[in-house]
Amino acid sequence: MLSPLLPSRPAVLVGYDIDRAAAARRSTGGKLWGSNPQLTSGLPYPHKGLVHCRRGGHPEPARRHGADRRQARSDREEGHDAPLRVHIAVDESTKPEFPLEPYIQTDYGHLDVPAGTLVIPLTSRQTKDGMLGTHLKIAAINSIHNLLPANLPTVPNRALAYQPNVTLSFVVLNEDASEGSYVEGWDVEAAIRDHFKPTLEPLAPLFNFSIESQVLYHAPLTFEPTQQEDGSWAVDDEQIKVFVSEHWNLDSKSTNNPVLRFMLFVPSAKHRPMSLPGTDASDTFLLPQFGSVVILNPPSSLKEDASYHLTESALDQPFSQFTSDFYKLLAIPTLPEKLHPCPEKKATKTRASRGVSEPFSPWQLDTALRMRHLENAREARKTLGGIVRLIDKIEEMEIHAAVREKILGAIAKLEQLPAAAKEGVLASALLSRDAVGLANEAFFDPSMMGLLYFPDQHKFAVYAPLFAPIGVSLVAGLVKEIRAWKARKKAKKAQTEPAAASVTVEKDMPVQKVD
I need a surface site. Which of 128, 289, 324, 482 has the fewest CB within 10 A? Predict the structure, then answer.
């Protein structure tokens, strides 16, 4: 019997370590932790009792972090959750005033700590503050509470329904290359590497991504944009609904997986500059469960008959928007706004200035796994319930052995969820993913679908032409037999009526006496 209860929130392990310099200051009188080093004492439900903190005692940070990376990699390979870490570091480049400004460490951060660590920086001056323990506790509790929300956000309708295999299609759409000033090529591989790869790799336990790209030289609009007083062209809200034309060759020929399309539209020379409605002159819009469109107006200095190549720097702004839309289309949580950006190493042009999004952190992965875990568990139960109702409604439906095995397999996966949730969110997410996959395979099995779309009206329409000739003969024969039966009955009745009349006459005649 299928349990009506969904698995509880999986446990999360959060470890913390202290910068060596900060620890030294604590031993010389600096009150780094105050009187209570237990950060989780103020954590609200559901993290209390689930989030554990521990101090790192390794003398060499480089060796410690290398071991952490190897352990995290081993945990991922074995299917276990790596602990989420909090690092308290003394950093003289940080703001010297309170409140503290925590951030998520990235691969390009200037501290020697593993990427994905929640870093709470402080200056040497702040380590001597008597209220430092309270400030640290507030920063840690607020950050963890925002990173691991008690109430999971629901998957919005604009997001793609969960599918383990997803194709990402990147397309340049030249409205009309014959008019000149069109895009003939782009550094799409470099843009995907910088903007998408840091997000795609951590999502490997949930999704299998495939990527394709193309450049189209003729993608005309099916409507005429509205020309503004300043000579620009605008696309209104109604035109946005039909912006993507069915005549564009956007279909993926290599896969039947759901496709998210990220389209870079280059208007023709006569429709430039083009913008969308709004006071901010937006140049992008989202297509729910389909993809997103960014309008790219070539520079006015470009010759009308020239073609050009989009470099990596030219793609930073469009791909920054594509990344943001990608998060929305897959219901991937973003980092809370209360967290600050990670300080970068000195470079000629930082990632933040280029518009490159923060890499996907383990904290976001935890929330994404829990969201999809809950969605898949509910969907699997809903699909199995639909199979039961379908069998009750169509009594002649036969459940083959292969379908039965899939149904029992889905039920077994769901029953294992409560125990798997205690091991970690990754194990439970994988179980729910397999459960919904088996349930869908059972529901959409050809043997099930054949009876589902074969109602009684369909049977009558199919068999009526076959049995109609026989039915006419049967009806004609039946009518003939009824008529013959009536004739025989009438003849028999006619024979019995004269005999009865003669008997009556004889009884009524008077009897004569003879003398």
Answer: 482
pTM of the model: 0.71
Q: Is 211 left (phi over 0), alpha (psi -120 to 50) or beta?
A: beta
In a domain, 349, yes or no: no
Which long-range contacts does 34-40 make (Cβ < 8 Å, 24+ apart)? 34/131, 34/132, 34/133, 34/134, 34/136, 34/137, 35/133, 36/133, 36/137, 37/133, 39/86, 39/136, 39/137, 39/140, 39/141, 40/14
SS3 469: helix
Residue of 267, 263, 180, 182 lying closest to 232 (CA atoms): 267
3-state secondary structure 86-115: EEEEECCCCCCCCCCCCEECCCCECCCCCC
For the record, the structure tokens of 297 come out as 């107006």
Give the pLDDT confidence score for residue 322 in this predicted structure: 94
> Which range of residues forms the domain containing residue 262?
165-332
Domain identity same for 411 and 460? no
Output the six-digit token pair for 378: 């509910």
Total count of domains within the chain: 4
Judge whether 187 lies within some domain: yes
Q: What is the pLDDT of residues 91-139, one digit of tens each?
A: 888 888 999 999 988 877 778 888 888 899 999 999 888 899 899 999 9
Taking CA atoms, 76 is separated from 79, 332, 372, in Å, by 5, 20, 18
